[in-house]
Amino acid sequence: MSQENASPSTASRAVKAGIRGNNLDNVRRHNLSMVLGLVHARGTVSRAQLTKELGLNRSTIAALVSELVQLGLVLETEPQQTNQVGRPSLVIEPNMRTVAISVNPELDAVTIGLVALGGTVVRRVRYDNVRVPTAREVVNIVSAVIAGMRGELDAEFRTLGIGLAVPGLVRGSDGLVDLAPHLGWRDEPLAAMLTESTGFAVFSANDAACGAIAESKFGAARDVDDVIYLNGGASGIGGGVISDGSLLTGANGYAGELGHTLVNTNGSMCHCGATGCLETEVSRRPLLDACGLTDLEAERLEEALVAAFARPEPPVELVAIVERQARFLSIALRNAINVFNPRRIVLGGFLGSLYRVAPTQLDEMIRGGAMRGARDGVDIMRASLGSNILMVGAAELAFASVLADPASVSRA
Predict the structure, then answer these.
(1) What are 29-63's pLDDT values in tens digits?
(2) pLDDT digits (tens, 9 = 90+) for 354-401
(3) For the chain, domain boundaries
(4) Is the CATH number 3.40.50.150 carried by domain 98-209+390-408?
(5) DSSP string, 16-76
(6) What number is the average pLDDT over the span 285-313?
(7) What is the pTM of this model?
(8) Same CATH topology for 98-209+390-408 and 222-384?
(9) What is the dihedral of CA 108, 113, 117, 122, to 10 degrees?
C-alpha cells in the first residue's frame, strides 16, 4: 500500500512510529554519550557504578557498553580478584588505541603529543625552536613529526584528529589565528594549513582555554562547575572560564582573555595596543632574570623561587618583584571573581609558582578586594597536570564530537 492510499489511521500510526523511532535513537545516542563521557573522565568504571550514577537499568548499561566496545571506544574486562561475595561487576575503561594528536606552538618550542581517550598522554615530542617560528614552519614541523609516526598511527591507533592549543586569539568558526602577538602572527589559517598538510581534521582554541578544559575534566578543577583558569608562560598570560560546567567562548571564540585585564593605569604598552594589561605587569622574564635563569632553564624557575624564599633573608630584588607581581595578579583575580563568581581559581605555569611562594599575600589581597558573596567559598589551587596540561586539553577539542555522539565514528 502506498502512503497516498493509506487510511488516515494507518498513516497516523506510521508517522507516530517514525517519531518514536527517532526519539528512541536520540535517547540511545544520549545514553551512549553519557556512558562514554563517564568512562573517559574516570578512566576505569564498573558496570555497577554506571548503573548507579546514570540511573539506567543493568540491561541498558550492558547494551550501551557492548555498542561502545564494538565501536572501539572502550574495553570491558574482568576485575582483579577481590573478596567481594558474588560475581564482581565487569570493568570498563577507555580504549587506548583511540587517540588524538595535540599540538602547542610556542616561542621556544613546538610540542606534539599523542593522547588516548581517558586523557592519557601516550607520547610527547618537544621540538626546540632556534627562533620564533612562523605559522608555515609550525605546519612543517608538525607534518614531519606525524609523517615519522604515520606507520605506527595507521597500524596501532585510530586517530580522531588534531587538537591545536594556540597562544593567541583563535576564531571559533574556522580556527583562524586572528592574533598571536608574541609569535608575531596575524590572520594565519593554521588549522586549514595543518588539515591540508596532514589530512587530519583540526580543532583549535586558545591555549589557556585548553588548559581550563583539561584541569576541569582531569585536574585541580575536576567536578567543579564554575572555574577560572589562569596560566602564565613564555607567551604571556591567558585565561579560560568554565561556567556551569561549560567553557565560555563568546560570540567568536575569544572569551576569557584575562591576560588583557587592566591592572595598572600607569603601566607599560601591551602587544594588544592597550596599556597596563595583566600580562605586561606580571611576566616570567623578570622572575627568570632575578633567579639568574635563561629561557631554556624556565622549568627550573619554581625550584629557584622556593630555594630563594627558603633563605633566612631572600634576595631583596626578587622579593620586590614577587610582591609587585602578586599585587597586580590579585587585582585581575578580584575583578574576575566579581564578574564570574567562580567556585575555584586554578593557577598554572609561572603563576602557580608565584602562588606557591606568596600564597598568603595573594589570598589576603584577593579576598580583601572582591565583593562579599562573590568571594565567599572561592578557593585557589595550582594546576595539577604539569607539562601535559595543554596536550590533554588540546586532545579534548578533537575528542569532543565523538564524546557527544559516539555512534558517529566508524566501527573499529
Answers:
(1) 999 999 999 999 999 999 989 999 898 899 999 99
(2) 999 999 888 888 888 788 888 888 899 999 998 899 999 999 999 999
(3) 8-94, 98-209+390-408, 222-384
(4) no
(5) HHHHHHHHHHHHHHHHHHHHHHHHHHHS-EEHHHHHHHHT--HHHHHHHHHHHHHTTSEEE
(6) 92
(7) 0.85
(8) yes
(9) -120
